[in-house]
Structures are given as C-alpha cells and as structure tokens.
Amino acid sequence: MSPAPDVRMTLPARAEGVAVVRQALAGMADALDVDAAVLADMKMAVSEACTNVVVHAYEDADGMLEVDMSADELGLTIRVRDHGSGIQPQVRSRDVPALGLGLPLIAALSDAFELQGGTDQGTEVKMTFSYARESDPAEANPVTGTVGNDGRWDSDASRGTPAG
Amino acid sequence: MDANPIVLDDAPGDVVVVVVEGEHDIYTAPTLRERLGEAIGRGGGIVVDLTGATFVDSSVLGALLDARRRALDSSKGFVVCVGQTVEPGVQRILDITGLVPILPVVTGRDTAIDAARATPNGAGE
C-alpha cells in the first residue's frame, strides 16, 4: 500500500487546471528546497502528464484529473491519474492539435517513470524525481526523432533532415 | 492585467514580432495559434520572441511548428528568439527536442528580425 500523499489534488480535467497543478508543485518544491533545474523538469513532466489527461482521457465528456505528490528523503513521486478511456496516445483533439511529444518528454525528464492503465480503465502516470541527481535522465532516455511532415512527432525520424 | 501576455509588435515594419511572456501551455496555446495566424496574415517575416517566457510546453512547440510550416509555405521568414539568459522552463524543452536549429532559435530580437528578413528559412540557412 502506498503511503499517504503529501498533496492530493482533484480538479476538472480542463486546460486551465494544468497551471494550477504547476503552482502547487512549485509550492511543494519550494518547501523541499528542490534544485531549480530539477524543479523545471518536474513542472514540464507534470504539465505534459496533465495535458495528456485533458486532451486524451475523456474525449468530449467531463472528467476529473487527480494528482498526488509524495515526498520522502530521496525525492518526490508524482502520480497523475484519470478515469477515462485509457491509453490512446494517437487520439487527436479537434481543438487542440497534439504534437505527440508528451510521453517522450516525461520519460526524458523524470528519474523513473511508469505508465499504467488500459482501455476504459483510466491511466496513471507515476514519475519520480531525485533531489540529488547523479546524471541527467535525458541522457538515459533521450527524446529521439523530430517533427514529421504531418506536424506530429516522429520518433524514428533523423534529426539531420528536418522537414521543411 | 494578463500575467501571460501574447502581443504583436509590428514596429520593425516588414517583420511582425509575436512577444510571448510568462507561462504558456495547453490553456494559452490556442491564443498563441491565433496570434501567430494574425502575424502570418499581415505579411512579411515572423519572429516569436520568447525572451520573457518562463515556461513553454509541447503544446506551445506544436503551435510554433505549425506556424513555421505555414510561414515557410508562404515564403515568409520564421525565427524564434530568446534572451541572453533563458529560463530553464524554456531552454530545457528546446534542448532535448533538438528544435533549436529547426524552428530556428537565435539569441536576441534584432538578430531574429534580420534573419526573418533575410530568408524564408531564417537563421537555419
């Protein structure tokens, strides 16, 4: 059983809520005296995880975004959860075109990353950030590829031949 | 007063500067797309100035890449600029996505304006 979270937020899965989560994270990181570079990675990864919920989880229906932040002596663990349609990263919103970079960014910016869920089971993204990093996680899990001709991220494309 | 403004500056004449300040994500990306569309519609080159930006996510990058494509399709210059000091919330995503040479991203608004004027491919040439 997981320990009780230090911060638990439940809010409507709407675009305006993503900045609210970042503000809460910044406040918690300030209390923990987190390094500015690590905090920047935390904010980016959490924003991308929350954006995935807003764009993909509930399609046109209303739903909730849940965020748990739990600190221990080594780092901060953040869980971003929805109860929506599950992992469908290729779904594109009509109103908010998605680049498709969210999960690669989360993997590159967090020291550990897990994705759980399935069709109609909701999705949980668990990210762990160490206060004292021994190396840059983006070196171990680099974002590969570049933007493709369709405007989405192509993880297999070479960066030496940007699409113009 | 908007804490995260996106405004157009057409003072350079033949180049429109889209000035982006504060934090920007999926909530403000539609507004950014609108402003970029206005800038492209005015003719001339486009510069996106992120000097005052403190955070941008992949929604913003998507808007910038779409605008870049539209600008290049119309044979307009498109260049992004940052200041001498760049916030981690901006620098990091540009670095790890490798988009600095693609958008392209240069240091300083004047440099960006010159590049957007000089060629449809801006400083990427």
Give a short summary of the structure.
The complex is a heterodimer of chains A (164) and B (125). With 164 residues, chain A is α+β, with helices and mostly antiparallel strands. Chain A has a single domain, classed as Histidine kinase-like ATPase, C-terminal domain (Heat Shock Protein 90, 2-Layer Sandwich).
Helix-strand layout with pairing:
The complex is a heterodimer of chains A (164) and B (125).
Chain A: E1 7-12, H1 17-32, H2 36-57, E2 64-71, E3 75-82, H3 102-109, E4 112-117, E5 123-130, H4 137-140, E6 146-147, E7 153-154
Antiparallel strand pairs in A: 1-2, 2-3, 3-5, 4-5, 6-7
Chain B: E1 6-9, E2 15-20, E3 22-24, H1 29-41, E4 45-49, E5 53-56, H2 58-73, E6 78-82, H3 88-97, E7 105-107, H4 109-118
Parallel strand pairs in B: 2-4, 3-5, 4-6, 6-7
Antiparallel strand pairs in B: 1-2
Helix pairs in contact in B: 1-2
Structural account:
- The complex is a heterodimer of chains A (164) and B (125).
- By secondary structure, chain A is α+β, with helices and mostly antiparallel strands.
- Chain A has one domain: 2-Layer Sandwich (Heat Shock Protein 90), CATH 3.30.565.10.
- In chain A, 30% of the residues lie in helices and 24% in strands.
- Chain A is globular.
- Chain A starts with 6 loop residues before the first strand and ends in a 10-residue tail after the last strand.
- Chain B has one domain (6-124): STAS domain (Transcription Regulator spoIIAA, 2-Layer Sandwich), CATH 3.30.750.24.
- Chain B has helices at residues 29-41, 58-73, 88-97, 109-118; strands at residues 6-9, 15-20, 22-24, 45-49, 53-56, 78-82, 105-107.
- In chain B, the strands form 2 sheets. In chain B, strands 1-2-4-6-7 form a 5-stranded mixed sheet, with helices on both faces.
- The termini of chain B are far apart.
- Chain A binds chain B through residues 15-16, 18-19, 22, 36-37, 39-41, 43-44, 47-48, 51, 54-55, 95-99, 101-102, 105, 108-109, 138, 142-143, 146-147, 151, 159, 162, 164, and chain B through 23, 25-27, 29-30, 55, 57-59, 61-62, 65-66, 69, 72, 87-89, 92-93, 96-99, 101-102, 121.
